[in-house]
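User: I'm new to structure prediction. If I give you an amino acid sequence, what do you actually give back? Let's try with this one:
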Amino acid sequence: MTDTLRVAMIGYGFMGAAHSQAWRTAPRVFDLPKKIEMSVIVGRSADAVAEAADKWGWREAATDWREVIARDDIDVVDIVTPGHSHDEIAIAALAAGKHVLCEKPLANSVADADRMAAAAESSSAIAMLGFTYRRVPALTRARDLIASGRIGTVQQVRAAYRQDWLVDPKAPLSWRLKKDQAGAGALGDIGGHAVDLVQFLTGQTLERISGVIETIIAERPVETERVGIAGVGGDEMGEVTVDDLALFTGRLSGGALASFEATRFATGRKNELTVEISGSDGAISFNLEDMNVLHVYDRTGPGVDQGFTRVVVTEPDHPYLEGWWPAGHMLGYEHAFSHQVKDLVEAIDQGTVPAPTFAEGAQVQRVIAAVEESSAQDARWVQV
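Assistant: Good question. You get back a string of structure tokens that encode the predicted 3D arrangement of the chain. For your 384 residues, that looks like this:
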């Protein structure tokens, strides 16, 4: 193994910016066991990807991901394309002996996700899925507290991911609203985060699902230009083929019930991911819009003045904080991506399997499929 990991990133949209920031920042903040070389960024438009390479610090730009994957001077392939292309790119990269970091969702179907998980299992290369919120320090800390028994037996879970960027009926028909490219709507895009976090925090898996999904606005202006997440729409109308809203309940392997909401129609909510886990001895509550804070309740303490304690997760001994600022100096959205790079590089160096694995991503895809199946059967319970 060489002392340098030469990275190729496939895709250059919103996630491309976040991943570029991470590849650039992680080796400057953390004492990584290997150097990072941002070798090449790949996209379909030669002009656009060249501009992205210059903006984000990639050494070169290319338009053919297959040629890039075949190169001997590439060690890691980072996939930030829409979900419908993940399986083909990841499987080809693993077959070429490249380590793979793949943005969520793992794939757009259970079958494709299973093929990716099988390819990762049989490969000597490292494969890791990008459920990045696991690496928000407050959430990693929450997982550790729950695992240590701090809140006792998990008895109930509530999770919701709420956004409002589609409330305007004139918001254009971007690729995120087309099932053949996105796989699912709010359910798969942001609901998948909620599902993964609940399973990550509790250490349990969802076994049965009952839920409904709904498309609130069925037609939108066809996108004519990509600007931000939703772009710009024209006069032509097109069909929305994914859900706007998902509400579902799940039974965890430990017996507790968990409720979920995933919506892009929560007017006034920009990026609110909340998780509250109630246990026999206490509870933990988190809101991504206040991402440096964890609320912890200990019901074993004395007195009638018990309440949630507000913990600012920025102390030097909190997860990932060894590389950052003094206590109380806040971290933001982009920092979790640097933590993701740190964990991946260390796993490659040590020859260990980093989480989340492709198998975990396939399991989340099964939950998403179970919600869709349940909704099609009037919210009947469906086995995952």
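You can read the tokens as a compact description of the fold. Here is one thing that stands out. The first helix runs from residue 14 to 29.
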